[in-house]
Design a protein that fits this description.
With 405 residues, this protein is α/β, with parallel strands linked by helices. Helix 1 crosses helix 3 and helix 2 packs parallel to helix 3. The two termini are 14 Å apart.
């Protein structure tokens, strides 16, 4: 029996609250259900244009979880999810994603939706074989595959070599303000430039090679429906973050992802399908919290976008991706000149970015609460791990760390 409080070290939370994670997952489910009612969304069974069977790779948190929730609870899809989580026991806590998955599966069962979640290494061919076997058991085929994997490591299935990804600039040091979300203190953080095989290794982990392999093996196994589409997620962001992101090691991986999308698209087109990369908005995530400048940028951005009425969290954005891009009434998917879906359209609005550029240099510890949406970024940071969720008694003893009630 213990009271669980957030354990935070340098903008990293190292524990999770079981009931808080479950409640936040339920909040996202309730949001998409309300959007279904508001938009008048029809599931396939109701005669609507909607996915029926969806595979979500990286289903446990962030955009992957929000995608799975949108597919299931607004569009009525049966789903298979894959993520690699530390399981909880009665006395030891699991990762937030483990609790999120448990809450998702419980809610899906309550609504009569089929869902299976595999706690497995999505980079492995063994995992692919397991997923293929499961969907064949269902007697159906995937009509949407969401690729939302983010990992520090990947083992190449052919060579068994382990590759590690890094978030580093290229050629020169990248530095800037480091905002502590819990205290409002502002330090200075520097990221050293990539060296050795940092760039190719990061591409190997976070690029599109594994996505391409998934689609190839699913296709060869005959488990992709006619017209099956697949979407993977990327980020571009403002010029101030380009050295650490778009032009850095992770950006090289995302450019590889976007290039491979074209190969996958060509392969799927023969069967009426398509592949897309969706460029999404900046959000507080486990990695964005520890990159120079990014945390402060997001806090400034949130404040500006809220004032304009265009702020979105993870679930709002993925619900909009499904409703206003992937499953529109006219069945057209709006793309930019490079063939990408732009869900960062509101973030990258020139008027928004002009305000960001004006405010960023002005932020000090004295005015941080006026210029930065500290409450929002602090809440989002804590909520990822099941803390600061309304309706949860955080003074209550948790008797079983594996229970989400």
């Amino acid at each position: 029996m213990a009271v669980i409080k957030p354990m935070i070290r340098s903008n990293i939370c190292i524990n999770a609250h079981p009931a808080g994670c479950a409640k936040e997952t339920e909040n996202q489910i309730n949001y998409v259900k309300s959007q279904k009612a508001k938009r008048g969304t029809k599931t396939a069974k109701e005669g609507g244009y909607a996915p029926k069977t969806v595979l979500v790779l990286g289903c446990s948190t962030g955009y992957g979880l929000a995608s799975r929730i949108s597919a299931a609870f607004e569009y009525g899809a049966d789903t298979i999810g894959v993520s690699f989580e530390k399981e909880a026991t009665q006395t030891k806590g699991g990762t937030p994603g483990w609790y999120n998955n448990k809450a998702f599966d419980r809610a899906a069962a309550a609504d009569g939706l089929k869902s299976v979640t595999f706690n497995a290494d999505a980079f492995s061919d063994e995992c692919r074989a397991t997923v293929i076997e499961e969907v064949k058991k269902w007697g159906t085929k995937f009509d949407l595959v969401v690729y939302s994997l983010a990992s520090p490591v990947r083992t190449d299935p052919d060579t068994k070599v382990l590759y590690k990804s890094v978030i580093k600039p290229v050629d020169k040091v990248y530095g800037g303000p480091s905002l502590d979300m819990m205290t409002g203190k502002i330090g200075h953080m520097e990221a050293q430039p990539a060296e050795g095989d940092d760039i190719p290794n990061t591409v190997k982990v976070m690029g599109g090679e594994d996505w391409e392999r998934w689609i190839k093996q699913l296709s060869e196994a005959g488990v992709l429906a006619e017209g099956c589409r697949t979407v993977a997620y990327s980020y571009i962001g403002p010029s101030l973050s380009h050295p650490i992101y778009r032009d850095g090691t992770i950006g090289a991986a995302k450019k590889d992802l976007e290039a491979r999308a074209k190969n996958i698209d060509a392969a799927l087109k023969a069967n009426g399908g398509a592949a897309y990369v969706s460029v999404n908005k900046a959000l507080i995530t486990r990695s964005s919290s520890v990159i120079p400048i990014i945390c402060q940028y997001i806090g400034v951005l949130f404040k500006i976008m809220k004032a304009k009425g265009t702020h979105e969290g993870c679930i709002e954005q993925m619900e909009r991706l499904f409703a206003e891009r992937l499953y529109t009434a006219d069945k057209n998917v709006a793309l930019d000149a490079d063939g990408r879906i732009r869900m960062d359209d509101w973030e990258m609005d020139p008027a928004v970015q002009a305000e960001v550029d004006k405010i960023m240099p002005q932020v000090t510890e004295e005015n941080v609460n006026e210029l930065v949406d500290m409450d929002a970024i602090r809440h989002d940071f804590l909520a990822i791990n099941g803390f600061d969720i309304a309706g949860i008694d955080y003074e209550k003893d948790v008797a079983d760390m594996s229970a989400i009630d």
